[in-house]
Amino acid sequence: MDETTRQTITKLLDSHRIMSVATLRPDGWPQATTVGYVNEGLDIYFLCGLDSQKAHNIAHDDRVSLTINDDPEDVMKITGLSLSGHAALVPDDVEAARLIAMMAPRYPDSPPLPMPMPTPDQIHIFHVTSSFISLLDYSKGFGHTELIAA
Fold it and tell me: Could you tell me if residue 81 is left (phi over 0), alpha (psi between -120 and 50 degrees) or otherwise beta?
C-alpha cells in the first residue's frame, strides 16, 4: 500500500468513532453490530462484553468485516471503507487499560457515563488485523470502491 493511500485510510479512521462489525455465528449466519472503536494508524480496536454474541462468534471464527462511512446529505459525497480481517483478543491488561482510556476522548461532547468505564477484566478488547481494505468514494462514481491488500 502506498503512503498516500495509507494516509487516506488513517484520516478516515481518525475522523470517525463508530463502525459496523460483522462476525459469523456458529450456524453460519453473519451478524452485524455497531460498536465504538479506537485506532492507532491502521490498527483498529473495539470493546465488547465478555458474554456478548460478538465475543462468542469471534471465539468460533476470528474473521470479521468492518464498515466505517459518512452520512452526507448528498449521496455522491459518501466516503468510507470496508475492511476484512481477523480479530484477536488484546491479552495484556496494561495495553488493554491504555486502549480503554483512549475511548472517552473520542466523545468529548458526551455527557458523563452513568457508570465507570469498564476495566480489562470486565470486557474483551479486540485488535483487528486487516487483510483487505476497500475505499469507498462516490465522488469518483456511484459505488466506486478501490480494493487494497493490507
Answer: beta
**C-alpha to C-alpha distance for 150 and 142, rounded to whole angstroms:** 24
Q: Give the tens place of pLDDT for each residue, 31-48.
A: 999 999 999 999 999 999
Q: What span, in angstroms and rounded, lies between the C-alpha atoms of 64 and 24? A: 8
Strand partners, 24: 30
Q: What is the pTM of this model?
A: 0.91
d(CA 47, CA 98): 12
Q: What sections of the chain are H helices per DSSP?
A: 3-14, 53-60, 93-103
Task: Answer whether 68's CB lies under 8 Å from 80's CB.
Answer: yes
